[in-house]
Amino acid sequence: MIEAPSPEAARRLEPVRAEAEARIRALEGVQSVSVVLTAHGPAAPARPPQGQGTPQGQGAPALTVGRHPTPQAGPQAVPGIDRILAIASGKGGVGKSTVAANLAVALAREGRRVGLLDADIHGPSQPRMMGVARRASSPDGQTIEPVQAHGVTMMSIGLMVDPGKAVVWRGPMLMGALQQLLTQVAWGRLDVLLVDLPPGTGDVQLSLCQRTRLTGAIIVSTPQDVALIDARKALDMFRLLGTPVLGIIENMSGFVCPHCGQESHIFGQGGAEAEALREGLPFLGRIPIDLATRLAGDEGLPVAAGDSPAAAIWRALAQRLVAGGMA
Ligand SMILES: Nc1ncnc2c1ncn2[C@@H]1O[C@H](COP(=O)(O)OP(=O)(O)OP(=O)(O)O)[C@@H](O)[C@H]1O
């Protein structure tokens, strides 16, 4: 993607785009290539509330989210936020959002000022997991007011668009939306902001690492081989982008039968810990498969907000991160 300062400059750069595409296509091993020119047009006017007029006609507050990113030089810090942690996974469905939500709540219970940004733009799950139904607001059309849930300051694209509608955006729109969620949300002073990423190694990950000064990334994986293979790809991506990986969390690690007490290793055992060892990374902890965790997530009351044995696991994880200066 080539970012131009204006639509006119983008038009003049067309020969550069075509040549870049041709040269990359000529490289050995390249199977397909698509070079795109993008330019940030004039700012969109503020829209009236009650949901008219987002790019796909989806309901949204006064501020339109989802636009081309503004050009910037190198990764930027977000004012007022001391640490930004990306919660990432290679494979989908391994429990990244569950980890982000519970860790955020557990850190808040340790007295930290915590933010949670749901950057899973195509499948935002934090509104449900954190039990937030109300829409975000932007009274001035410039800044977005985040919501508070379980002691955590939270924002999700799911609070800005119609939850029943698909977000159909190309890479530049995703990058612009992420930039807006980081810089236009009134986060206030935070000790740590957790960013719940989409699975994989796509535009959102790339954009976050290149544009935002991150403290580091935490990789969530199940012990299963297919998840670990993808977790390795995520690790590679962060290395390539120069983002420190702070450790690996193994989720869905064993299931203790509530009836007979026997432990079954549904997705295998110890795979993520072995991977951390092999990669020379800290192993941050193991979270078992737990019915209460799943139910609590669906009900919008993260298990870490309670006092069950499952909550104690999240508390220990949060304390480890605080002790290590990560949160
Ligand atoms: N430790 C756990 N015990 C029981 N259920 C879990 C656990 N972790 C996650 N789940 C459940 O597994 C499902 C997938 O989890 P989650 O949405 O957190 O994954 P994800 O990696 O964020 O998915 P996506 O790829 O869609 O972003 C959810 O229904 C969640 O409640």
Automatic annotation (TrEMBL):
Keywords: ATP-binding, Hydrolase, Iron, Iron-sulfur, Metal-binding, Nucleotide-binding. InterPro entries: Mrp-like_CS, Mrp/NBP35_ATP-bd, NUBPL-like, P-loop_NTPase, YlxH/NBP35. Residues 41-62 have a biased composition (Low complexity). Residues 41-77 are annotated as: Disordered. ATP binds at G90, K91, G92, G93, V94, G95, K96, S97. The keyword Glycosyltransferase does not apply. Pfam families: ParA. GO terms for molecular function: 4 iron, 4 sulfur cluster binding; ATP binding; ATP hydrolysis activity; ATP-dependent FeS chaperone activity; metal ion binding. HAMAP family: Mrp_NBP35. Binds and transfers iron-sulfur (Fe-S) clusters to target apoproteins. Can hydrolyze ATP. Belongs to the Mrp/NBP35 ATP-binding proteins family. Homodimer. This is Iron-sulfur cluster carrier protein. It comes from Rubellimicrobium thermophilum DSM 16684. The lineage of its organism: Bacteria, Pseudomonadati, Pseudomonadota, Alphaproteobacteria, Rhodobacterales.
